[in-house]
Amino acid sequence: MKPIHLDDSTFLFVLTGAGVSAESGVPTFRDSNGLWETHPVEKVASPEGFEEDPALVWRFYSQRRAGAKVVKPNAGHFALAAIEQKLGDRFLLATQNVDGLHSKAGSKRVVEMHGSLWKTRCSQCDRAPFADDAEYSADKLPGCKACSEKGTLALLRPHIVWFGENLDPTDLEAISDFFLKAKGKRFVFIAAGTSGAVWPAAGLVKQARALGAETWLVNAEPSANANDFNHVQLGKSGDLLPALLGV
Ligand code: OAD
């Protein structure tokens, strides 16, 4: 396979989804049929679900934290970290994954569009999210210290973008700033391991194309938005990303 032409003036934007972590042993959303145990994922990943049953939600995320602690990045993650070393500020990675594997592989310029399993924040006050890898049990749900100092009770929650919630505008700005810098230059856009069904991530390929990007899809199967790409490479991202990036 011929690598994508990436020269000294190329801007490279990569969007990743659950498929990129599949070879590390993290199950994708489609694999689980939208269910966790017997619960629809919306019940454990929405503000309404948290309101109704915070213990169930924390059990779900504690289990995901425990699972993600022991997994390792794969060749796809490492290839992205290696190409960033070459391109520097002409590279940006936006991921829908919350597992932190891109950072574990050494990626630095990462926008975690859907939040992070490794951060926690208050469900009520606007104190900044903080690093946290704790697993919480139903009899010991975490409370917000800042709120309790002010005399109110509030639970902490995972720093994850749940169903029905908006993405952080700062993250979207970082992506659009990069697109504007790349406009008019050689601009390559790669989406890898994502079903192309969840917005706004699924719409980024069209935005990039409108700005002149050459667009590549790297996925196990044709994604919902496969027609929006100039090039479609079907297979495993752990094989295809190193080959296409030439690293
Ligand atoms: P999905 O689980 O929807 O899709 C994963 C995609 O990866 C599928 O199209 C698979 O064919 C493909 N795939 C599986 N294994 C692969 C491999 N080894 N190499 C390449 N491709 C592979 O995951 P996402 O598209 O990431 O949102 O899902 C997007 C969002 O939907 C998630 O971030 C989550 C969910 O709702 C939130 O949690 C907010």
Kindly name the structural category: alpha/beta
CATH class of the largest domain: Alpha Beta
CATH-assigned fold name of the largest domain: Rossmann fold
Number of strands: 11
What is the residue-mean pLDDT, rounded to a whole number?
Answer: 96
The gyration radius over C-alpha positions equals 19 Å
Number of helical runs?
Answer: 10
What is the H/E string? EHEEHHHHEHEEEHEHEHEEH
Stretches with pLDDT under 50, minimum 5 residues: none
Can you identify the CATH superfamily of the largest domain? TPP-binding domain
Structurally, the number of domains stands at 2
What proportion of the residues form beta strands (DSSP E)? 15-25%
Q: Helix amount, in percent? A: 25-40%
Oligomer: single chain
Summarize the structure.
The protein has 247 residues and is α/β, with parallel strands linked by helices. The protein contains ten helices and eleven strands. The model has no long low-confidence stretch (mean pLDDT 96).
Write a concise keyword list for the protein shown above.
2 domains, 20% strand, 247 residues, binds 2'-O-acetyl adenosine-5-diphosphoribose, Rossmann fold, SIR2/SIRT2 'Small Domain', alpha/beta, globular, 3-stranded antiparallel β-sheet
Task: Summarize the topology.
Elements: E1 11-16, H1 19-22, E2 35-36, E3 39-40, H2 41-44, H3 47-52, H4 54-69, H5 75-87, E4 91-95, H6 101-105, E5 110-112, E6 115-122, E7 130-131, H7 145-149, E8 156-160, H8 169-182, E9 187-192, H9 204-210, E10 214-219, E11 231-234, H10 237-245
Parallel strand pairs: 1-4, 1-9, 4-5, 9-10, 10-11
Antiparallel strand pairs: 2-3, 6-7, 6-8
Helix pairs in contact: 5-10
